[in-house]
Amino acid sequence: MPIDEMNSMKQALIHMRESNDIELKKAKKGLPESFWESYSSFANTTGGLIVFGVNEAFPDNEIVGVEDSQKIVADLWNLLSNESKVSYRTVNNQDVTTVVVDDKTVILIKVNEAPNNVKPVYINGKIDNTWIRTGDGDRKAKKEEIASMLRNAKPEMDSLPIDGCTLDDLDIDSIKQFKQQVGNRYPAKKYLDMSDTDFLIEIGACRLNRENRKYQILRGTLLFFGKLNVIKEFYPHFHLDFFNRRGSNPRWIDRVSDDEPHEHEMNIFNFFNIVDKKLRELQNSSFHLDGQLKRIPEGTFNETIRECLVNCLAHADYEQGYPSIKIQAYDGWFSFFNPGEMLISRMQFPLGGDSRPRNEIIMKMFRLLGAAERQGFGGPLIFKTAFEYDYRRPELDTNLESTEIRVWNIDLADSYPELSKEEKSVLRYLHKSMSAISIKELSKKTNMTYYRAKKIIYSLKARNIIEQIGSGPSTKYVIKAGSEESLTQIQIAMDMIKRQLTK
């Protein structure tokens, strides 16, 4: 490896910090037992990088190296192939790399996230030995978390019939309104000429029991069209909430909830119709101005908001006890929160092409309404809209317990109203550059004096909006890690390592 590449690798290793997806271990004498806890954790969450031969220290890590890399790697492969040690292997040949830095050997192991249908990934032959990653550490999964992973492995639960549930348990007004909307979209299907029962059978909302020749209501059908008291009988934790928290009211100015009386049964169908209308009204009452103070149409952003709403309702784990569905509108941004982990990775969501709804029946109902025609490409739409309008980038948080998508209709700088005009200008530059930058580079690019650029950088750092990478002459600054606004310290380090390893 050339000297400059060696130095780059060294810098990446000494500045790397343990996090959700990075674990550093000395492993000087051999393969540590704690490796398997980290392996299980990464496989059950979003994957990660485990580094042998580096000791985390401040301000710089210590590269200690391993003594017998060949034996460590051999032991690793032997145990990864042993089903009594690990329930599933996510590490392939290209995922294990040995490098030499300052005459010390470092081993890099990339642990890929396991497919949902094989989770939980556990160790030592017992499902109780399931680990998950939280922050920069590993912990044993709780029984509820293991149960959640097992449900994620079989996301077709809403397609199962409910014993004892009949058409009388469904809200007839919801069915008629739905039939009218779908019938208008597909006149050739003659849905409007069908009885309500025949319509439900035709669209797959009921399933024939081959033994008694009777049609049964499916779980997703009950959630979508059911009477609230019946839904709560089978799903005791079912709860839907919408809050309009715009303005200065410390609580909210408008709410839609199944806890409050309504003229309609508060099933998923009616909740969607009511909240979708309110969200559109909120968007139509506001608009975004470009640099020439021209009104930018919000049609695409309305599509984005609807996509988030559909995702929230169709991907929720209604079996889970806590938390519940909550949609909130704030000044400049929206939050869509649902119980259950997203079944595709955070990396795949903005790329699209992979659709794995937790509730296929509910998603099918939304498709019939024309509210989910972008199946598999809703994520790209959400992110593309932000880029096109120069809004603050959407943020996605997902774990075993919950999923939250936050979308803005203002840019990153304006989402921090307390910043000065110059601070917002610098933040906008960092946001658009999508890379780490030094104070000297910033001064040159923005025509600010070095002193002024330094003062603003220090102010943004003190507010925890940006963070420092490196030290001394190599010091640079990026948008704060975890915000998904730019390349984080971890991402930069991992990208650097990948580039070196692929040469």
UniProtKB/TrEMBL annotation:
Tree of life domain: Bacteria
Pfam name, any one: HATPase_c_4
Domain Schlafen AlbA-2: start-end pairs: 18-141
InterPro entries: RecG_C_sf, Schlafen_AlbA_2_dom, Schlafen_AlbA_2_dom_sf, WH-like_DNA-bd_sf
Organism field: Megasphaera elsdenii
Name listed for the protein in its UniProt record: AAA family ATPase
